């Protein structure tokens, strides 16, 4: 018979759960992402219901699929970068680091250029790192990505996709 006292890790986890330190409570929200002439509305899960800049990520595909019968066309995330005041923003296979942005009225609106997660160096793919980014190595990926994230409620139509009229036809 195994007892908890023989497993110090189990004791720490139980103490954290009892104290609420590991509650992991997430808040349902929505992000609208514009990439070129495509608009994606996706369900997100946020760390704070009124401050998306504190972190969020796309709701797991399995959960979205079970609830709506559809999946999100893109994965978007924003999280604090290690022990810095910066954040990393990821959109599928692209990313960008920057100082933590601020939301207004619980809505975070941003437009940014993003680099690919991996780049070629010496004929081999390597991961783009924070240090490389901060030293100015920012390979072209996708430009002018805009998104709006809010964490106070979920758009019932998410996930959704629509093609926007091209600039020439406007």
Strand and helix map with partners:
Blueprint (H helix, E strand, L loop, with lengths): L7 H12 L7 E9 L2 E9 L9 E3 L2 H8 L7 E5 L5 E6 L2 E6 L7 E10 L1 E4 L2 E4 L2 H5 L7 E9 L9 E4 L7
Antiparallel strand pairs: 1-2, 1-10, 2-3, 2-11, 3-4, 4-5, 5-6, 6-7, 7-10, 8-9
Q: Overview of this structure, please?
A:
The chain is mainly beta and 170 residues long. It is built from three helices and eleven strands. The strands form two sheets. Strands 1-2-3-4-5-6-7-10 form an eight-stranded antiparallel β-barrel. A two-stranded antiparallel ribbon has the order 8-9. Mean pLDDT is 87; it is low at 1-22.
Number of strands: 11
The gross shape turns out to be: globular
Overall pLDDT? 87
Largest sheet properties: 8 strands, antiparallel, barrel
| C-alpha-based Rg, rounded | 19 Å
Characteristics:
single chain; 170 residues; mainly beta; eight-stranded antiparallel barrel; two-stranded antiparallel ribbon; 15% helix
């Amino acid at each position: 018979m195994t007892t908890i006292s023989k497993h110090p890790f189990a004791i720490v986890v139980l103490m954290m759960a009892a104290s609420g330190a590991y509650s992991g409570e997430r808040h349902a929200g929505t992000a609208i992402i514009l990439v070129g002439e495509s608009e994606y509305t996706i369900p997100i899960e946020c760390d704070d219901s009124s401050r998306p800049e504190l972190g969020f990520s796309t709701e797991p595909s399995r959960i979205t699929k079970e609830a709506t019968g559809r999946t999100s066309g893109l994965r978007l995330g924003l999280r604090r970068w290690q022990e810095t005041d910066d954040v990393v923003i990821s959109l599928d296979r692209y990313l960008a680091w920057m100082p933590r942005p601020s939301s207004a009225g619980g809505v975070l609106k941003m437009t940014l250029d993003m680099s690919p997660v991996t780049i070629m160096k010496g004929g081999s793919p390597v991961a783009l790192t924070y240090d490389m980014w901060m030293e100015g190595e920012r390979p072209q990926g996708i430009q002018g990505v805009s998104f709006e994230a809010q964490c106070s409620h979920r758009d019932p139509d998410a996930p959704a996709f629509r093609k926007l009229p091209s600039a020439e036809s406007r």
